[in-house]
C-alpha cells in the first residue's frame, strides 16, 4: 500500500500536466500580437527558465518567426530606400 500511494501521486501529477499548443511559425508571422506574446513568454516569461531542450521545443517557431519578420522589415526598408533613390533621379 505504501508503494502504491507515491505511484498514484506521480500519475496524478503527470496527468495534470497540460500540453502546450505551440503555434507554427506561419501563424506567428500572420498574427503579430501572438508573436509578441510568445516572444515575452520565451525571453522573460514562463518558458525562459526551462532547460535548453524543452525551451527549444516550445520556442523554436517563435525564433524562426522573429527572424522572418526581421528579414521582411529589412527587405521593405531596402526596397523603400532604393525606390526613393530612383524617384529622385
Question: Can you give me a brief rundown of this structure?
Answer:
By secondary structure, this protein is an all-alpha fold. The chain has one domain.
Describe this structure in words.
By secondary structure, the protein is mainly α. The chain has one domain (24-88). It contains four helices and no strands. It has helices at residues 4-16, 25-30, 32-43, 52-88. The longest helix has 37 residues, at 52-88. The relative contact order is 0.10.
Main attributes?
0% strand, mainly alpha, rod-shaped, 89 residues
Total strand segments: 0
Written as H for each helix and E for each strand, in order along the chain, the element string is HHHH
Termini separation comes to 87 Å
Largest sheet: none
β-strand percent reads under 5%
Radius of gyration: 22 Å
Q: Overall mean pLDDT score?
A: 80
The number of helices is: 4
The share of residues in helices is: over 70%
The total tally of domains equals: 1
Annotate the secondary structure layout.
Elements: H1 4-16, H2 25-30, H3 32-43, H4 52-88
Helix pairs in contact: 3-4
